[in-house]
Amino acid sequence: MKSNLRMAALVIAASAGLAAGGCSTWDNMSRADKGTVGGAVVGGAVGNAAGGGVLGTVGGAAVGGVVGREVAK
């Protein structure tokens, strides 16, 4: 259980770092794009904690990105 939480924290930190570093124009992004990034980060962490492994992380990020975009619209 502890390793799942550590992995989820690592995924969140890495995703947030990539999102922040890759988006030097964060202020110019639309609300929907920001929702996509946020949803993907949260979804990836939840998918990793729930399903574990690469498939759970990627699947969670994909679903989270879609949900985050729709909520932010």
Brief sketch in words of this structure:
With 73 residues, the chain is mostly helical.
Features:
single chain, mainly alpha, globular, about 0% strand, 3 helices, about 70 residues
Poorly predicted parts: none
What is Rg? 12 Å
The largest sheet, given as strand count, sense and whether it forms a barrel, is:
none
**How far apart are the termini?**
35 Å
**Given the helix and strand composition, which structural class is it?**
mainly alpha
Strand content: under 5%
Morphology:
globular
Q: Share of helix among residues?
A: over 70%
Number of separate helices: 3
Run of helices and strands: HHH
Annotation, overall tally of beta strands:
0
pLDDT averaged over residues: 79
Task: Set out the fold topology.
Blueprint: H1 2-22, H2 31-51, H3 53-72
Structural account:
The chain contains three helices and no strands. It has helices at 2-22, 31-51, 53-72. Helix 1 (2-22) packs antiparallel against helix 2 (31-51).
